[in-house]
Amino acid sequence: MRPSTFKKTVLATNIALLLGSAFSMSAIAADADATAAADENIEKIEVRGIRASQAANLNSKRFADGTVDAISAEDIGKFPDKNVAETLARIPGVTIDRTFGEGQGVTIRGVQPDQNLTLLNGQAVGTSQWFVLSDATRNFNFELLASEMISGLEVYKTSQADIDEGALGGTVILHTRKPLDLEANTFNASVEGQYGDLSEEWDPGLSGLYSWKNEEETFGMLVSASYQKRSVRRETTEDFGWFGPSIERIDPLMEPPKGADEKGATPWGIGSALFEQERERVGYDVTAQWAPTDELDMTLHYLSSTMKADNVNSNLIGIPFRGVAFLGEDTNEGTVTNGIVDSLDVTGLPNRPGWARHMAYDNIFRDGSEMSTQVIDFDGNYSLDTGKLHWQLGMTEGKGTNRDFFTEFWVDATDPRAAFDFTNPGGTAPAIDFTGASPWLENPGDEMWLGGIFDQLNETTDKETYAQLDYSWYVDFGGVQEIKVGGKYRDRSMEQNRWKTDLSGLDPIGAGSLGPASDFWSGDMVNVSHSDTSMPSQSYFMPDRDTMYNALYAVNECTATSAGLCRNTDVFQGSSSFDVAEKISALYAMAKFDVEGVRGNVGLRYVETDTTSEGTVAGDPVKYESDYSEWLPSINIAYDLSSDVILRAAASRALTRPAPFQLAPAVNLTPETSSGSAGNPFLEPLTAAQYELGAEWYFTPESVLGLTAFKKDISNFIYTTTVSAVIEGEQINQLRTPVNGGNTSIDGVEFQMQHAFDNGFGGYVNYTYTDVADAKVTEAVLITNPDGSVVAATQDSYVELPNTSKNSYNLGAYYEDDLFSARVNYNYRSEYFLAKTEIGNQYRDEQQQVDAQLSWNATENITISFEALNITNEIWENYYERDSDGARLGGTQSSNGRRYYLGASFRL
Q: Which of 523, 459, 243, 240 shows the shortest CA–CA distance to 362?
């Protein structure tokens, strides 16, 4: 509670009208000491160690007006996890994605990452990607942010009028430190080594912080820096989409395998993929704070983070579909069970057409790829007797540079030496044995030819400037203690440009190619154990990058009179380039109240959005414009049933905008695997009506038992569908594109229990159940009678909300005393929907992970720590559910291995 009395002002009349409330205008003059006394009502906790951190977290949650979960650093420079997203995964209702072994996208209450919001000190952060196939999203890239720079965070699961709109699931607000909050000459430094059991390499990490302030405590400077190197190795069994007779357009293109009596579904392609990356992240955080008087406080903050991400991806691909494709002659030998090809011995056949090449070998070299972000923010507060004026001005920019030197070897479709054995027992574990059937892969000759090559540069920029001004007016209107009004303007631009150098007239094999594999073999081998996926271990040749690069640029430049093989250099790729601009204006008013044990806030936010999407379609520039406005009311109520029990209720209307690439008139294509993604500039924003009820029992200062029920009624939800299309003359069999669905709802329950015992032990458990209603969508599909006459042009189907796990939970236990601390955490999330494909829905299978930490306070100033991540060596796996009968079809499986950290920190 924060009881205060303040002076009246005529501004209250306008605010009262906006909020639709009949406030009394008889407020009395404020006592200056009342504010200071009110601040003392909130318990101050010096955070150091697991137990103190959790007490501070519960303190923030307990006194919040809305449903808020908080996490604070366990010491200066020591966040609970190396990655902020990993820490977020411990919060009830929060799950994360670990595609490359580290926490990335954050899903909150069943809502996918790019429909949530992450803010730094209350403002957006320009973000970027190092991976050329990563579409531009609103999802903050947690790989960029060193956890040592963060002092704490909150996850707001309910809306407030004074917090940016844009989150359907929740808003994450990260906080950096300020020098006037720390002791003068505070110093912290840490050093660590990281070991990955797949890469089998040790990598260094360093971080440090120094904070100074003058004796008058009116001016201070804080500087922190971090450096991290990480060797990444990921082994993957990769699928490229499934085809089968249940797909109407595919059925006439297939035959049964030789020896089988029926046609069967099979992946178009399966690859043995090895991804290796050298990451190097450097971050700086500089803060200057000036408080010349007790009333005025100003902060200038600069943050910079850059991650270099050189990497190589090698993928040996077999194409089982071409072993059963309708080619006018016998197919390859195989077996079919329950409409699924479960074995197929694929080889070249004498009369097979040239386009039906059944083996490819891709190597993608991404030297020079990197991403960066920077933030410049000026924040100020000026306190008056009647209230507080706050302003915030700034700019943020994220940049990504993605370099792709792509090479592809092909086999001759008629070559019997080019062979592989495809197996798929039960349909759930597709795998290929390459080296057993084609031993020449370990010493190549002319069995493969360099018949695909290009050099590509992709640059992305995400830039936003913002200005925010608000005023908190302290009042005493029948329980209303504060009225906050303000406005904010944001100007954001998300741009992507791509250039490509490739060859015209290049044949995939033979004399018209760049040469046989033997001309390019480096002598090195790619060895992939696949020990944790369905694929057997593979060993195949590694081509020399420089030799292939020189071969590309040795070809003569194309001219108007060129005939045959020639080079097109740095050609702008208009179809993959775009610019999406947004101008967002918001006004808001919010009243805070506290009367007879009932506290909270009620507010209204009005927002206008103007969007322009520009790109190139079929060689012509295009431009799409849209604008919309929304009124977003919200109310959060907390009732102190007793001194230890709080009841909560909330209701709000939320708005979520489509991601930048989703709005772009552009494509990201991978023609070599006949796949890609496309934007949709006609997408509409999502809206939702949200409600929740909850209860929390704080039975000790470090313990809580809580239960919350929530509901979201969503309109215009966005899902991904996969179609076949011809793009710029290329047949793309698996083109993913976003579309608006109809209406759906999310209903869920969160349970949380946390307790600290008196003997140093403690533990926590939380569980979230999320039930998502399938949404009916209408698609354009011609439905015909047996005679061919059209009886309908549309068809209704049902889709699921992406990234929503029905069950997720965390279990954790810890021990802490003056010398030692230890913690173990188990995280689980059930399967979730990814996309709608031609064969059926695609899902990510259930995921679980066990992590552990151990630290020893060697002296008062030195701590030694050890951490192990993914102890049980879990993988992630996708699968499909066939529409025709619900059969499970196996998909991509990926192993990132275990990671270990050993470090020491020093503090003054």
A: 240
